[in-house]
Design goal:
The strands form six sheets. The protein has a seven-stranded mixed sheet with strand order 10-23-24-25-21-22-11, with helices on one face. The protein has three domains: 249 residues, HUPs (Rossmann fold, 3-Layer(aba) Sandwich); 159 residues, Beta Barrel (Ribosomal Protein L25, Chain P); 117 residues, Ribosomal Protein L25, Chain P (Beta Barrel). The longest helix has 16 residues. By secondary structure, it is of the alpha/beta class. Helix 3 crosses helix 12 and helix 8 packs across helix 9. The chain has 14 helices and 25 strands.
């Protein structure tokens, strides 16, 4: 392998290529193992991309396996949403989705094997007593008084735990390793606990459930996962992962850790995200401000932009915080290629073109997307004597000589239409402009301009007669601080951005958007990218701002 190719590989790819070169495997088998206790977020997107892309690169496979070992928090709703999000992101898992609950009988048998080998015991200690027994990083642990129970007694108690004889919290199954080990995970970790709760798939068949550290590696082994890729916080769990596989003598899956995705102004804790939902600080898991994949989809972020973002963020061994501006940059880049340009006015002021015939409508041909071949085609937009433009596009007395928008005595071009000349304006008693009076140059129509008039500014507009009212929602960062969860002395909710949503109840859009399908994203000319909301109907159009047009990251990095 050339040095140039070697340098282009991330550390996980280097490991896989070495394994393939040595004949350890013929192809990698990876898995994505979410717990169905919430919706997927941007951090999960990185894990999904790494697992699926690496498997695809080397001709391998990726399983989707739900880590459903905690009936208290898991729901079928989350299972369905996770499947939907992965497919939307552009990936298909191997065969049918799998569940750790599929392996409950096998996991129980594995636990029994450990007991028979004298490597696990039933402990009657309370959770508080177990915590005290474990000591801490400066003090070794002490053995449980139940640690030396006879194997036969442990087997009997574990069977009776399974049969529901004991109440929750009364007993656990613990591995018997080393209570003085410097790695706290080796200090006789709990493998099974009692939970008399209905499971979303197995119902009331089981009342004991394996802990993550026990179920994870064994499930990987059952599926013959070659490379178990997980985030960095599990690096201290890896020795226990390997110990259990070794003691059981099963397929040797290998755990490899990478840095999780941390993005400025976003949080990636499902518990904290659920709190935002439960406290009514968002409208749900798919709130467009949320860093969930469903929220991003509703806001209009393309799946391709998320994949690109994860790729640019890279695969690292150390934790870092990725700039939110990079995420916006990737979103703009993708939408610039795919989103049609349309006209909408968010803060309208009336313009009357006094020399345009009353009652007449002229259809203007406007390009859909200049980035596409043949401009993505053209559409017809109605032009009439009275139009709306943005209030911010008019000044009574411009102070800047480089002001190229509308003002008395100034010329501007209307996008796809004519150049107009501002003759004057009308205002109310408070001095607010209520009407701008203009004339148009008859032979200045865009595409066939023979007027000889030059206009440096171009404005978007909509015909008042044909304008369609719409609700527009402007979204900002959900948190004012880039790392809201990293302040030891403050609750992350202290950084909740009260101004993260601004609703414009009545904006106006061109008539082509009347039948816009939910999920369709557009560039509102000069305003940003906007997506048709999932609740939008022809009777009430709703658009969510996906991202602004301004790109600070691209300019800094370019």
């Amino acid at each position: 392998m050339s040095e140039e190719k070697r340098e282009s590989l991330n550390f996980i790819e280097e490991i896989i290529e070495e394994d393939l070169k040595n004949g350890k495997y013929t192809a990698p088998a990876t898995r994505f193992p979410p717990e169905p206790n919430g919706y997927l977020h941007i951090g999960h997107a990185k894990a999904i991309c790494i697992n699926f892309e690496i498997a695809k690169k080397y001709g391998g496979t990726t399983n989707l396996r739900f880590d459903d070992t905690n009936p208290t928090t898991e729901e079928t709703e989350y299972v369905d949403s996770i499947k939907r999000d992965i497919k939307w992101l552009g990936y298909e898992w191997q065969n049918e989705a799998l569940f750790t609950s599929d392996y409950f009988p096998q996991l129980y048998a594995f636990a029994t094997t450990l007991i028979e080998k004298g490597l696990a015991f039933v402990d009657d200690s309370t959770p508080e007593e177990i915590a005290l027994q474990k000591g801490d990083t400066t003090k070794p642990g002490v053995n449980s008084p139940y640690r030396d129970r006879p194997i036969a007694e442990n087997l009997d108690l574990f069977r009776r735990m399974k049969e529901g004889e004991f109440p929750d919290g009364s007993r656990v199954l613990r591995a018997k390793i080393d209570m003085t080990h410097p790695n706290m995970h080796f200090r006789d970790p709990v493998l099974y606990r009692i939970k008399h709760e209905t499971h979303h798939r197995t119902g009331d068949e089981w009342c004991i459930y394996p802990m993550y550290d026990f179920a994870h590696g064994q499930s990987d082994s059952i599926e013959h996962i070659t490379h178990s890729l997980c985030s960095l916080e599990f690096r201290h769990h890896r020795p226990l992962y390997d110990w259990l596989i070794e003691q059981l003598g099963i397929f040797p899956s290998r755990q490899i850790e990478f840095a999780r995705m941390n993005v400025a102004h976003m949080i990636t804790s499902k518990r904290k995200l659920k709190l935002l939902v439960d406290e009514g600080l968002t409208i749900g898991w798919d709130d467009p401000r949320m860093p969930t994949l469903s929220g991003m989809r509703r806001r209009g972020v393309p799946a391709a932009a998320i994949r690109t973002f994860c790729d640019k963020a890279g695969v690292a061994k150390r934790e870092n915080v990725i700039e939110a501006e990079l995420f916006d940059f990737c979103t703009r880049q993708e939408l610039n290629k795919t989103a049609d340009r349309v006209m909408a006015v968010l803060d309208p002021v009336k313009v009357v073109i006094t020399n345009f015939p009353e009652g007449e409508t002229e259809m203007m041909s406007v390009e859909n997307n200049p980035e596409e071949e043949d401009n993505g085609g053209y559409r017809e937009v109605p032009f009439t004597r009275e139009i709306y433009v943005e209030r911010a596009d008019f000044k009574k007395e411009p102070q800047n000589r480089k002001y190229f928008r509308l003002a008395p005595g100034k010329d501007v071009r209307l996008k796809g239409a004519y150049i107009i000349h501002c003759e004057g304006f009308e205002e109310d008693a408070e001095g607010k402009v209520t009407q701008i009076n203009c004339t148009y140059y008859d032979n200045s129509r865009s595409g066939a301009d023979t007027s000889g008039v030059k206009a440096k500014g171009t404005l978007h507009w909509v015909s008042i007669e044909h304008a369609v009212p719409a609700e527009v929602r402007l979204y900002d960062r959900l948190f004012t601080d880039p790392t809201p969860t990293m302040h030891e002395d403050k609750d992350f909710l202290e950084f909740y951005n009260e101004e993260s949503l601004k609703v414009i109840p009545t904006a106006y859009v061109e008539p082509s958007l009347k039948t816009s399908e939910p999920g369709t994203t557009y560039q509102f000319m000069r305003l940003g990218y906007f997506a048709t909301d999932t609740e939008s109907t022809p009777e009430k159009l709703i658009f969510n701002r996906t991202v602004t047009l301004r790109d600070t990251w691209g300019k800094r990095k370019g």
